[in-house]
């Protein structure tokens, strides 16, 4: 069972970047909850743990110490960008990142860009707490700019949030080599109402031949008046045969 730690950036009194009616903390939470739901529903042997599942404030050190204590296999910190860029997506690993952190960044970055499209600002390295302190491979994603009108418009679209979620889910699944859960393919055996079920064949033939039923539509349920007619025929049959 893999443990994936998803860290929704900011929260509570810390909204993160705020512009164009968007608060970074809200996008980060929505994306993080979506990642948990889709990873756990779609893949085998994976559990997603969250720094926060509601709008609460957490210190950076609490986020990473909890992830380390839980023994998570990977950590992904979800953010949105701001600050005068041209917009787009970028990801961060630590400046002296492990080989596995680099692999995780590569898998995440590729799959998010593939789903999201737009400007690719690149796979970057920076001395950030959230990628420096985790004991496991760790990556921080910056999902579009809240202070760029075009990006903010995209962040208001459910399809774009879905693309960000799916990109993270697929990147994590690729890195960990997760196996998809099979959809239970139940064979759809809809009964032809004009053909008796196998188990009822003999009985249906008998009651039809004796005239209790007219032999039509064996697979349809019976009304009280239809049942009344059958009982009446049955009574007459009993009278007749003694
Ligand atoms: Zn942030």
Output the keywords.
single chain; 242 residues; alpha/beta; Aminopeptidase; 8 helices; 8 strands; 18% strand; binds zinc ion
Task: Tell me what you see in this structure.
By secondary structure, the protein is an alpha/beta fold. Helix content is 43%, strand content 18%. The protein contains eight helices and eight strands, in the order E-E-E-H-E-H-E-E-H-E-H-E-H-H-H-H. The protein has helices at 24-42, 60-70, 99-116, 129-132, 149-155, 158-176, 201-209, 224-241, and strands at residues 2-8, 18-19, 22-23, 46-50, 74-81, 89-93, 120-125, 138-145. The longest helix has 19 residues, at 24-42. The model has no long low-confidence stretch (mean pLDDT 94). Residues 9-10, 16, 24, 79 line the site of zinc ion (ZN).
Please write out the topology.
Layout: E1 2-8, E2 18-19, E3 22-23, H1 24-42, E4 46-50, H2 60-70, E5 74-81, E6 89-93, H3 99-116, E7 120-125, H4 129-132, E8 138-145, H5 149-155, H6 158-176, H7 201-209, H8 224-241
The structure holds zinc ion (ZN).
Zinc ion (ZN) binds near residues 10, 24 and 79.
């Amino acid at each position: 069972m893999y443990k994936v730690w998803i860290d929704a950036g900011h929260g509570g009194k810390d909204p993160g970047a705020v512009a164009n009616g968007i608060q970074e903390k809200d996008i980060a939470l929505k994306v993080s909850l979506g990642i948990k739901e889709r990873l756990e529903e779609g893949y085998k042997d994976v559990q997603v743990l969250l720094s926060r599942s509601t709008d609460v404030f957490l210190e950076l050190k609490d986020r990473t110490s909890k992830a380390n204590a839980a023994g998570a296999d990977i950590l992904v910190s979800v953010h949105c960008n701001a600050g005068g860029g041209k917009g787009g997506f970028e990801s961060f690993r630590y400046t002296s990142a492990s080989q596995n952190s680099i692999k995780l960044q590569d898998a995440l970055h590729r799959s998010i860009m593939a789903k999201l499209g737009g400007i690719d600002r690149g796979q970057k390295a920076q001395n950030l707490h959230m990628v420096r302190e985790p004991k496991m491979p760790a990556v921080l994603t910056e999902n579009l700019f809240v202070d760029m009108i075009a990006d903010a418009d995209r962040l208001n679209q459910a399809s774009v949030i879905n693309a960000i979620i799916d990109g993270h889910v697929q990147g994590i699944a690729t890195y960990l080599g997760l196996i998809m859960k099979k959809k239970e393919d139940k064979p759809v055996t809809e009964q032809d109402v004009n053909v008796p079920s196998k188990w009822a064949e003999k009985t249906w033939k008998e009651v039809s031949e004796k005239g209790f039923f007219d032999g039509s539509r064996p697979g349809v349920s019976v009304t009280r008046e239809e049942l009344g007619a059958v009982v009446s025929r049955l009574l007459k049959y009993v009278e007749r045969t003694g």
